[in-house]
Each structure stands twice: as structure tokens, then as C-alpha cells.
Amino acid sequence: MPVYDQSYRRYQARRPLRDLRFWPITREALRMILNRRAFLGLIALCWLPLVGRAIQVYIVTRFPEASRIAPVDGRLFGEFLNGQILSTLLLTVFGGAGLIANDLRSGAIVVYLSRPLTRRDYVLGKLTVLLLLNLSVTLAPALLLYAVALALAPDVLWRWDLAWIAPAILLQAVVASAAVSLLALAISAVSRSARAAGLAFFALMVASNLVLVLLRRVYDVPALLLFSVWDDLARLSAALFGASTRSAGLPWVDAALALAAIAGCCLLVLRARVRAVEIVT
After folding, report:
1. Which of 25, 178, 219, 280 is the most exposed place for a label (fewest CB within 10 A)?
2. What pTM did the predictor assign?
């Protein structure tokens, strides 16, 4: 009987599985992160500002004159989401700094990419981990706060002219979570140490922000704040909700373009660092 030569053929999963090949990566990473009780405690801590904002809404409903100091309108949700950026930083440092760095150190990335997974599947799986973590402390509590505010103060918020608040919450939370997640993942891909990646990410987001603020005051150049992810997000929040911010002098379009440029640079770093072979020079 003749034997016919059959060359190598890459495995192709069924269509439903092919679209979700990244999900096992996300699922296992989330399982490992959420198995730590300390991390669950950190998530609970990140939800505490929601309690304070809910109390603010309750006080305003009982004492309407308090709305002069703590108004219940779009600014309430913008300021809440601005404050939650710190929560995303903490979750990202403790939960996502080693997502790629650990794989680079152990060589697990070669195992991942030797399977029927593309580089896009790998990056998307890791990125989804950070997105879900960050949305759990931005979008989820913000929408819950909106529901609480509607229940406590329907005469204030249940109006057609304020129907834009819910879509604005969704947009701001998704943009903030995506920006922080992409930056953290790119830094994790550059380092082989989760601890070094976490420290570098925190320094980039906090220390560099303080330096830019000082330079802004010394040289009086508002454009310097465009290099700060924190200020870019605050400027978008000001445009969406009217929240007060120190970067109010910057056009929101410039802030959006700066965030898009940062995201593009992060994707280029991931493209360069995530590969199935290690090139030694």
C-alpha cells in the first residue's frame, strides 16, 4: 500500500473555540490571582469610596442646601471615577505586574506560543485579565453608585437631560481601564521580574506625574501634562462630566490623542517582546 507524504498542518479549532482561544489564559490567570485572600481584601478596600459617595447622595436628599458643597449631578460620577484611578493602580501592581514578566522569566511564553495560539491570543488573554480587574473597581461601582443615586434622588437625576450620565460612565471607565491595563502589560513585557515591573509601573504613573506637575508650574507649559496618563484621563473626565481638574486648560481632544499615542506605543512594545523564540545577541 503506498504511503503518501503529508506535510505539517497547523491545528485549526472549531469556529466557536477559535474566537475564544484567549479565554483559558484569562481564566487561569484570574483563578490564581483571586485565590489570594489579600487580593480580595484589596478589591473590597477599593469599593469603600462608593460608600462615601452613597452617603453624600443621602445627605443631599435630606438636606438640599448641602448640594452647594457636594452637588449630586454629573460631577459626582466624574470625581468618583477620577478617584478610582488610584484603585486601578493598586490592583494592577499587585495583580498584573507579573502577567508577562513571569512567563518571560520561566520560559512559559514559549509553551504558550507553541500551541495553537497566536501572539494576539496571548496578549488578548493577558490584557483581558487586567481589564476585568480594573473594570471591577471603576465601571461596576460607578454603575452601582448611579443606581443608588437614582433610587435616593430620582427627582434630581431621573431626567432626560441627564440621561447621558450612564453612557459617560461606561466610556470613561473603559478608557481608563484600557489605558492603565495596556501600559502595565507593556511594562511587564519589558521586564523579567514581576516586582521590578510593578515598581516601574507605579513610578511611571505616580512619580512621573508629580514631576510633570512641578515642571508645569515652573515653566507654565500646560502641554507637559499630556505626557501624564493620569492627567489625560482627568481631562477626559472633565469633558464628559464637568469635573474639576488641574489640567482644565488642555483641550480634551489633545488628551484623547495622547492616550491613543500611548496605547499605540504599548502595542508596539508588546509586538516586539511577545514572541515564541528568544533572540540572543
Report:
1. 280
2. 0.85
